[in-house]
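Q: What changes when hypoxanthine is included in the input?
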Amino acid sequence: MNQVYEKVVKCYESIKDRIPFKPKVALVLGSGLGNYADTMDVKAEIDYSKIEQFPVSTVPGHAGKFIFGYVKDVPVVCMKGRVHYYEGYPISDVVLPTRLMKMMGAEILFLTNASGGINPSYGAGSFMLIKDHISCFAPNPLIGENIEEFGCRFPDMSTVYDKELQSAIRKKAEECGIPLAEGIYVQLTGPSFESPAEIQLLRTLGADAVGMSTVVEAIAANHMGMRICGISCVANLAAGMTDQPLTHEEVQEASNKAAPMFRQLVTESIASF
Ligand code: HPA
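A: The predicted holo structure follows.
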């Protein structure tokens, strides 16, 4: 058996008796949405550290567990804390949790994150519906022997972000009076923030927001045929767009401030899927 596949199966086998239901939605909580589970009807939690061989995040504010609960009537598995490539894990470990949630039965992957705004019309605290992404600056998680159990060797990427889910999110944002921009998200490896010249480059390439996650997860989920959607919370203007230096604390602070609206948008969207 492929070693990467075997590891996901092992993780699944070690926790399957503690999974309370077949989740419909897998929700990845980005910075600021960490407390999202407080608004859920929680049925079970599994600490990442208790799952054999599971990659455990080392970033402050990203401590991790799976939380199983209902958002209105929808069974959801949440990832509180994700693993980033810059922590030094192989890219196959970075997408292992995504693959595991699919193995649990999740059909929809809802990705959230905090990002830097490249589009000059975005302010700190803006929300951006991810319409497409640029992956060329991050390693592709499908490199290596193809895992046939997950999907094909050369997956189509022409509609990674599901059009119907996008419409549902757009509609809910409008109903809730939450301004929602739409754009292209680019993932870089981090952990350093970008230089102003790099932001200029990314803008020229058509990116609207930049971050250090999400795209590799979307590629792995797309490979497995999941329906994918994503919202980015623009926590700061990208490097060079203000005189201020960027700090992780600033990103966390801005995402925390935007959290109540973010929570509402996520909840209403999931309930309408
Ligand atoms: N750059 C990259 N990742 C980020 C940023 C940024 O400016 N803000 C939040 N995550």
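Observations recorded in class: The first strand starts at residue 25 and ends at 29.
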